[in-house]
Amino acid sequence: MRFSAMGDAAMTVPVLYALASQHPDLRITMLTRTRFMPLFEWLPANVQVKGVDFAEQDGIIGLTKLYNQLKEGHYDAVADLHDVLRSKYLRTCFVVAGTKVAVVDKGRKEKKALVADGQHHEALQPMMERYADVFRSLGLDIDLSQPIHLNLRLESFAIVRSVVGRKQKEDTWIGVAPFAAHAQKIYPLEQMQRVVNMLAGKGYKILLFGAGKKEAEILATWEKDHEGKGCIQSICGKLGGLKNELLLMSQLDLMISMDSANMHMASMLGTRVLSIWGATHPKAGFSGYGQTPDSEMQLDLPCRPCSIYGKKPCAFGDLRCMNISPDAIVEKIEELLTQRSPLKKT
Asked: Hey, what CATH topology would domain 168-338 get?
């Protein structure tokens, strides 16, 4: 069980892939939000996904109905990868019925200490290893060091190509996802627009990712600056849903992202990601799967990290942690594009 957020759900994909491929005799059901179901479409055949809409199945009555549906699966064990009120209620129902249950240790105390005293702590256990530990506690060994091979071979890219065109061998496609759930994790948009314009000037095709009306309006203005040239294109709301956005991400040469769901989605697809970190820090355990430290841009400041999830307002009011020059970002991008990706492409 993992219901939110999208980035956290995406982080379970490499773990489920390892579990399913290394234990092909298992029958695995992933319970998540209905809108996150596309994240799990390309896992091995012994994984199925069940979606839940909490607008319809919430509260004690709704969750009890959901449990009554789930118990028909006759599961031997339940892995709670979320540990929130909803998952606690569901897992309690399973415990009462005699089903074995294991729960994720989110390391809340260690994470609190990481931001509490301004000291430079050692990196915490990666969140994906914490997920894997849940299954290990159920007696299932998992090796997360192996590359994942999500099966996209039979997918149709027709909708993607109708919007962005067909990628030619000589093309370099760079995705840019400039938004995040919290302002403290967003690189200043006017600076990111400079990065985008500089990259477009070098001949790269830039594809802008976002969601919702406000983000779509911002990205439309970036696209308009290069109207008719085709080198900058917003795909916000144009691909018909998450699945086609994921298919497009799988074709990118590089994704530029904040500490956000886009980083994790691109990572699970084997796409190299340049991530930009502000209030949060990779050592809290939320780096993208398979990404390396040299693709994480951040400033070494005594006030970082000031938050684990980026919710806490900047104590100085100036987001000095995001004072990274556009030139430095473009230089890093070109450096990464010349390197062979450490990730296995799907």
From this structure: Rossmann fold (3.40.50)
